[in-house]
Amino acid sequence: MLTQPTEKSTGKGIMFNEMYDGDEVRPEYRIVADWLAANGPDALNEKREEAEALFKRIGITFAVYGEGGDPERLIPFDMVPRIFGADEWERIEAGSIQRTRALNAFLTDVYNDREIIKAGIVPAEMVDQNEAYEPVMKGFTPPGGIFSHICGVDLVRTAPDEAFVLEDNCRTPSGISYVLENREVMSRMFPELFRSGRVRPVDHYGDMLAEAMASVAPPMCEDEPTMAIMTPGHFNSAYYEHTFLADLMGVELVEGQDLFVEGDRLYMRTVYGPKRIDVLYRRIDDAFLDPKVFNPESMLGVPGIIDAYKAGGVTIVNAPGSGVADDKAIYTYVPEMVEFYLGEKAILPNVPTWRCGREDELKYVLENLGDLVAKEVHGSGGYGMLIGPKATAQEIEDYRKRIEADPAGFIAQPTLALSTSPVLVEQGLAPRHVDLRPFVISGTETRLIPGGLTRVALKEGSLVVNSSQGGGVKDTWVLNAGGV
């Protein structure tokens, strides 16, 4: 039996165990506890072996290059789902939608009237000197005023009613394929748990995304829009997801060499001749998208696509320049963006954050580095960060020198008592830290499916959930009201 862990997180108190309240199973998890009581841990291990075989057959992989060996890996999948009650999810859903609306308003603003800068809320240099800010987008508003059509909001919990946003992913957030494939595998392994209808479905994501993309068709599109997904190719770490989404939505998967621009319209080469593309979901970085505007040496992009975009001949999802909102220094202003653009208080707060570019906050960070989590403002994937309480004295000193050399390039946060969720280990069930990435889709409406990507730090005591550093994933269940 899994019991409430007694370990503490840097003196911040007992960590919230999402399955147990003391020795009692929380109502949301009774569905799983009852199954375990009826079948036992051996049956769960058998199901895990079946699931691993299914993942191998399907070929659900991610890629890590530069480490030697076979870069294609099966992402570790844990059989014990993470479960949210209807009330818990309602707050996460409302807060994620609110935050995404504010981020899209911010992106439209900073490329146009810059009212938030004029109001003295966000410093101009934090935008203009951001490496993800694209001057070519100045004065342009995408169809519907949406820059980030698919936004990933990374969350952690410290209590049943307490969730914090770790970071925003407005550029090209990945992981939705795992959300949908995890559910497919779980429904095959445990059909009896889904027959009651207590778990809300997630299989309508493809339809939701297609509707949103169609709703932002470009001005030149006068009939049913033709859509496609653009991939940099099979060497990309998320290539499996690109192919998965194209199959799910029933649209073409294309590379730059398949496309060309003519007369401010984007076309795809086919054996039957050119075919117009109206909405392009690109899974390629800004720098490689258009060699006429960005990196002139790019062989992955489409010359002239930015001119066609700005002329109204094609819509690019997500818009170039969206990455300025991913910056971890910009992140610190999002609650203020919510108030500025929406006139509302943020439903989901940020993790308290120190901006090292400010002299007084830098002083505090350097004096307390051993107790904090420090991150590069442009970092991702769990790389380039320091978890002070788990670092050696030498690692802390080396990181201190990095911050001192470029204070504006770093932020720091407290080490929160992050929630744990049970995972299946050799000894049975054990608590491991988790986070959550809901995927918010913006078109005519801003919506999300009832679920998201739960990433889990499979190493005992680890706070790093990224798959590239040993993390795994879980199916995320949202129960219908009264479904506990």
From TrEMBL:
InterPro entries linked to this entry: ATP-dep_Glu-Cys_Ligase-2, CP_ATPgrasp_2, UCP005522
Indicate the segments forming the Circularly permuted ATP-grasp type domain, all copies: 81-457
Give the protein's recorded name: Circularly permuted ATP-grasp type 2 domain-containing protein
Return the Pfam families for the record: CP_ATPgrasp_2 (PF14403)
